[in-house]
Amino acid sequence: MHFYTKNVHFPNKENAHEVSKTKPIYQTSAFSFTDFDDMENYFDGDKAYLYTRMGNPNSDDLGKGVAELEGAEMGVASAAGLSAILAGVLAVAKTGDHILATQDLYGGTWSMFSNDLKDFGIEVSFIDMEDRGAIESAIKENTVMLYSESITNPLLRVEDIEGLAKIASANKLYLMIDNTFATPYLIRPHEVGADIVAHSATKYIGGHSDVTAGVVSGSKELMTKAKGKVSMLGSNIGPFDAWLSVRGLKTLSVRMAKQCENAEALAKALNSQPGIAKVYYPKAASQTGNGAVVTIELEEDVDIMEFSKNLGWIKVVPTLAGLETSVTYPVATSHRPLPEETREKLGVTKQMIRISVGIEDERDIIDTFSEALVRTKAPSL
Ligand SMILES: *Cc1c(COP(=O)(O)O)cnc(C)c1O
């Protein structure tokens, strides 16, 4: 099956239901058995479900659906992107271990790695992942993992996953990639050597801004460990949230196709707009598109607060990946946890706006940004 077909036809016929075309929501905390003998069937492996924290048909569907598109043996769903990332990390790292992570991480991951993993006794060093020499010389005896993101935020750097996979395998390290911004529609990190792939399904996988969810994928061996972490840390996803995420996932291909097309057109149009100092948009990120996020840096003389008031129907939202175009202010949201000097070093500035491009007509999106620029530069018009 090709990507678009696979995208709609999981869950497959094996777990199709006789009456209901879509999978019902198993809104239950536990499963029942006819008698004690029957309950033994769970422990013998003949029955799949016992207690929802340890597994539920809806959360399994989400894990399976993403794993199938990513080309992984197994996927595990969890209550948020961050818990999926934590489960992936804890599948390979324990107290005393060291992780090398890219310095331009999503702010929440950066906080978890700098503070919470440290409290667990796992040390993380942040480095420039484009500097191969820096990676090689930062690898220590106790390093177990390289960690990066397929497309970074908000500067939209496209990671050389294949290159990192070579370094990882030469040094017997695991490679973990956060594929939230690209999704498997654009980039499939497992196919070029990543061992673990994590998603904030809150973003494009769910796609409708109505759920907080995460998925981690990889080999059966690693994901069995990750699933154990999700269930023992109690970060399992609720059945309804899993169901909503699966419903969103089925339209990933068509949403991404349209959103990437709109983003491409917007990036091109904004490139020649007066008032804009720089447009960040990936080139050749993949064969299917370059992503649905565009980051712009306004000229110093354009009042960014005023600009945000002139955007009409485009809402200010501190996240991305919804059906509707929205904007955010990275220094105040995703990158708020980072110290100012780190933000400056990365090039995340106070004149920067991250645009999450939606599925509207591209002409309306482009016109709204152009008009907002004109109005902000010359308020009397
Ligand atoms: C949002 C996001 C996360 C965190 O996901 P949550 O669902 O909010 O826990 C992690 N990585 C990236 C790249 C994100 O955009």
UniProtKB/TrEMBL annotation:
Catalysed reactions listed for this entry: L-homocysteine + H2O = 2-oxobutanoate + hydrogen sulfide + NH4(+) + H(+); L-methionine + H2O = methanethiol + 2-oxobutanoate + NH4(+)
Gene3D superfamilies reported for this sequence: Aspartate Aminotransferase, domain 1, Type I PLP-dependent aspartate aminotransferase-like (Major domain)
GO biological process terms held by the UniProt record: transsulfuration
Transmembrane feature ranges: none
Domain of life, per lineage: Bacteria
Pfam families per record: Cys_Met_Meta_PP (PF01053)
Cofactor requirement: pyridoxal 5'-phosphate
N6-(pyridoxal phosphate)lysine, modified sites: 203
Entry's Gene Ontology cellular component terms: cytoplasm
Keyword tags: Aminotransferase, Pyridoxal phosphate, Transferase
Assigned EC number: 4.4.1.2
Family (UniProt): Belongs to the trans-sulfuration enzymes family.
Descriptive protein name: homocysteine desulfhydrase
Annotated organism of origin: Alkalicoccus halolimnae
